[in-house]
Every structure is written in structure tokens, then in C-alpha cells.
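Final report, results section. Input specification for complex C-07:
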Amino acid sequence: MGPGSSAFAQAPPPPLPYVVADDGIPEPLTGAPGDAVRGRAIVANRQAGLCLLCHSGPIPEERFQGTLAPDLGGAGSRWSAAQLRLRLVDGRQLNPTTIMPSYYRVQGLVRVGAAWQARTLLTAQQIEDVVAYLLTLRAPRQ
Amino acid sequence: MSPSTQAMQKDDSQNPAMLWVQDGEALWNRAVGKSEKSCAGCHGAAPAAMRGVAARYPAYDAAAQRPVNLAGRINLCRTRHQQAEPLAAESQELLGIEAYVAFQSRGLPIVVATDPALAPLRERGRKFYQQRIGQLDLACAQCHDDNAGKRLGGSVIPQAHPTGYPIYRLEWQGMGSLQRRLRNCLTGVRAESFPFGAQELVELELYLFARAAGMLIETPAVRP
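Structure output:
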């Protein structure tokens, strides 16, 4: 199977609508609650989350973590679920120049490869799983 | 680059890319095509004839009305002058001749060609370099200008200088052209790539060479 062969498979449904309030998305994107264990696996996976290409984080079994972005440790103490959700879904809305990809956006992209067209980087459920995992990352108490 | 990779590049007897340079020298002198002429048959000895050429490429080819990189020029010489088939992109032969020709410029500074036909093409290359692309929505400049030196996973992000091509890349276990490298970065951000030889890639090369003006050619380089 060539790399582009899945491109002609049925395009996935477009991203679900969501409502931004202040600097977050208060309502979960799906009915099913996020699963932190699955979320951790997504963050650790270099083909799925890609997070560790840029970030470091408390995932010691993954060597070669990136230095382009802040450490994910303590993210759950710094941010609420709503704030984390918007940062994953489309951080551009907060910082238009960020290099962090928008994980739940298909609009406004240029020259997307055929295999990835009209596909969000993560599904709605995966976003919820990653949010659930990030919320478990608490800063150690002083 | 790690000290061991640098050492491998510096010492010609350790540098695996020198095998391609040697192959290229043999091909330079081999008669091919209906013309039964070798490159040397027209140009003479490469150390004199090809000195400085790679440092001022890509160039504008008026007859074809398009910019050509060094590999493109080699294939134009084959079809126009040697009446031979063009060599396939990334073939051992093409990489060999290209490495041998570029090797004749080793240590010479990159000079920006002043041909006015090239200026708008170079500008298109610059625009593309700064344009966010692909599913990851990242521009070349965001990694190579804004974040060079930092680590993307296990790789240190280099400054995207085209000084060493064709290179021997340890990850490839072989030789590759600048366009191969550019196509890797394009698919890295999940953008639709361009075929080898596409004008868009040559335009990017034009910009990368202008951006590296004054830097010394180091072909054949070794990369991790």
C-alpha cells in the first residue's frame, strides 16, 4: 500500500463545533470522559501526538524529548481542563505565532499532503484523553 | 553535528561520500550517448573546468526558460550534448557526477548569481520558505531560523544551509541530494511534496543558496 492510498478512502467527518469562553473551551468535545491512560500513550507516541518532538515531559521511557517547548510536567496545576482543551484544539486563537500545531482544526491549512487532507491531527476523543492525562500532571507541592 | 560526524567528513579516507566522488570522476571521463563524448570531451579536466560552478548554482537556463540546479544541468548536458538518456533522480550515477562536480568547489564561498531572470524565482523560494504548510502548519523558517540549535525529538535542528550536498547521511546509509532533504522536511510537516526536479524545489534551492551567501562549499558532507 502506498503512502497516499488511504487518501481516497472516505474523508472523516468534519470537526465538531465547540464554544470558546475566555481562554478556554469549557465543554468537553465528546460525551465520553477522557481516559488519562490512553492520553499518556498518545502524548508518548511520535506518530500520534508528536508532543515529545517539541516538549519534554514526565515520560521517562521515551528518550530524545524535544527542547522547542515548555516541559509538560505540572501542566495540570497551571491550566484548567478548559484552557488545556483550547490549547490543544487550536492554540493559534491565543497565540497566532505559536509553532504548536492545532490538533483539531482543518481550516486555513496550506498544501496538506493527500494522506492527511481534511483530517484533524487528533480526534475529539483523543483530545479529551490528552486533556485528562495533562490534568494528572500536578506540580510537586512546595 | 557531533565531533565523530565532523571527523568523518573532514578525513577523506574516512568519508564514505568520497566513494561517490571517485565514481563521479570515472563517469566524467566515460564517453556516453550517440555523441560518444564524455563530460571531459567537452569541458576538459574537472578540477579546472568545474571549479566554482557548484558555488554559483542554481542557474537560469535561457533555452529551457527555467532555473536548473546542478543535477538538472548535468542531465541537460546529457540530453543536449551527449545525446544520452537523462540519469534518474537520486541514481548512483547522477549523485556520483554531481558530487564530483560539486567537490571541485570545496572550500569556495557561495556566490549569488546576478542573472536578473533568477531574482523573481529566488523570491518565490523565499516566500515558500516562510509560508506555513502541511497538516502541522509549520514554515521552514519557524524551525530553521527561529529554532535552529534546539532539539526536535532526538535531532538538533540545523540552519538549513545547502553547503554540503550531495551528502552522505548516516540515517539513509547512503548518498542523497538537497532535493531529497527538502522532500523529507516537506513530508515531515505532512505537506504534499514536489517531485524531484520540480521548479518549486529549485526555487527553494535558489533561496537557500542566497541565504548562505559567502559560506564555504563543503561537498561531500556527512550528516547524522
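Chain B has two domains: 3-103, 116-223. The longest strand of chain B covers residues 59-61. This concludes the modelling results for the funded period.
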